[in-house]
Amino acid sequence: DDLTHAIEFATDARVGTLLIEGDRRMPGHVDGRMPRHADRDETGAGDILDDLAERVLKTGGQVIAVPKGSMPTATGLAAIFRY
Prior knowledge:
- This protein has 83 residues and is an alpha+beta fold.
- Helix content is 24%, strand content 30%.
- It contains two helices and five strands, in the order H-E-E-E-H-E-E.
- The protein has a three-stranded mixed beta sheet with strand order 4-1-5. Strands 2-3 form a two-stranded antiparallel sheet.
- It has helices at 3-11, 48-58, and strands at residues 15-21, 28-31, 34-37, 62-66, 77-81.
- It starts with a helix and ends with a strand.
């Protein structure tokens, strides 16, 4: 459920399954192995969770959108690592 670790492991193709809270948005983008947070009102801020999901999908992992009430964490994400 740690964003920085999830980005790092997704970059290394080590995330097998990523759960993302369906309605949550985290303004910003992923820069290398680090999240870069942005102000919610910033135009074109992007979404860190979307960038993370793209990395997981590009490395053969799966991404599942989960309703808030069913999320196992309060951070908006949960990653299951491959190895």
